[in-house]
Amino acid sequence: MKEIYVGENEAGQRFDKLLNKLLCNAPGGFVYKMLRKKNITLNDKKASGNEKLVMGDKIKLFLSDETFDKFSFDKRKNATDIINSAGRLQKFKPLDIIYEDDDFLFVNKPYGVLSQKAEASDVSLNEQILSYLLESNAINLQDLNTFRPSVCNRLDRNTSGLIIAGKSLKALQFASKMLANRTLDKYYLALVKGTVKNDMTIDGYLKKDKKTNKVTVSHNEKDGDRIETGIKVLASAFDVTLLKIKLITGKTHQIRAHLASIGHPIIGDRKYGDEVINDKYRNEQDVKYQLLHSYELVIPDTNGEFPGISNKTFTARPPFVFEMLIKKMEEETGGNLELQRP
Fold first, then answer.
1. What is the pTM assigned to this prediction?
2. Phi, psi of 306 (to 5 degrees)
3. Cβ count within 10 A of residue 19
4. Which of 13, 92, 123, 197 has a Cα at 20 to 30 A from 116?
5. Average pLDDT over residues 248-273
6. 110, 96 Cβ separation under 8 angstroms
7. What mean pLDDT value characterizes the chain?
8. CA distances from residue 119 to 30, 122, 149, 159 in whole angstroms, order as listed
């Protein structure tokens, strides 16, 4: 018999969802069969599975050790997968932590790294974060039976910058709500082709081609999801412009497609960019990725929750080549671009 007490990261979810995580390798219907036969109980009573769990609830599983081990999370295999995946990420920079507390981890993602896996064979920043949390004893393998820390927002593989990871369930839920309600302000830096003369807000509708995984911008509302992007000009030199971009809506490839649609594609962007200027910067400046960086997060008042991030602004340093190009623009224009460099 196994006895488990519901903790902070398990509370607030349905009983059957927790059991399906705990017995993730069990055949379909096994959990509900065990509930009906009272081989699994909640607070020493028969349960249906749709109960909402609270802190301190007691779960008993009247299963043999052999059955439990067979159907439950394979801790040794999972630990090996996490550590091996993280090891494969060591060719990139070590984890660049911008902020950390008991609930949140803010990380500066390098270009060339997936935020989360798209396929089982992928390696992502998520595995590196899990490895870091295991090594620092912020979590243990037992915790991973029922809750797994995760990134809350995603960036394209070749977009660098700020990623929010939730170390606790309440943090993941809170960040997801901020992102969904757009109460969190996100700003990007982008180096684009041509001279952008004025600040502006551009809008349109985004249509996705699933075959090419590419989007196009239209002004016909029937064509897709509405998008809105705010643009602030920071500097222009060498027939390129440095922009600070506010992501007002958040759709796949929004910034990249939107800037290309107004004739100012991002330098280094192979999907939406200009081949001539991309080749120039690849040959002369060794630009191997799109010069788009998630630079700043502005967190609203959290109403007493998570005081460490409430009303705070977090910034992440751009990758080396990007930052060197910004410094050259500062020298050319004779001014400080007022970028915070943590």
1. 0.84
2. 50, 60
3. 24
4. 13
5. 95
6. yes
7. 90
8. 27, 5, 18, 19
> What percent of the chain is modeled with pLDDT above 70?
92
Q: Is the pLDDT of residue 25 over 50?
A: yes
Percent of the chain past pLDDT 90, that is, above it, reads 68
Element (H, E) at 185: strand 185-193
The β-bridge partners of 163 are 107
**Of 140 and 317, the one with more pLDDT:** 317
d(CA 46, CA 149): 31
What is the full DSSP assignment across 236-301? EETTEEEEEEEESS--TTHHHHHHHHTT-PBTT-TTTS-HHHHHHHHHHH---S--EEEEEEE---
The whole-angstrom separation of Cα 197 and Cα 334 is 18
Tell me what pLDDT residue 342 has: 43
**Contacts for 289 with CB less than 8 Å, ≥ 6 apart:** 111, 112, 158, 160, 268, 319
Residues in the chain: 342
Chain segment 220-230, per-residue pLDDT in tens: 888 889 999 99
Q: Hey, what are 63's tokens?
A: 């299963």
Sheet holding 58-61, edge to edge: 2-5, 58-61, 40-42, 45-46
SS3 at position 65:
helix
> Residue 92 above 70 pLDDT?
no
Q: How far apart are CA 160 and CA 115, in angstroms?
A: 10
| Helix, strand or coil, per DSSP, at residue 196 | coil
Question: DSSP letters along 116-146, please?
Answer: S-SSTT--BHHHHHHHHHHHTTSS-TTGGGT
| Cα separation, 129 vs 95, whole angstroms | 8
- CA dihedral for 76, 142, 134, 13, sign (positive or negative): positive
Alpha helices in 23-124 (DSSP H): 30-36, 65-71, 75-88
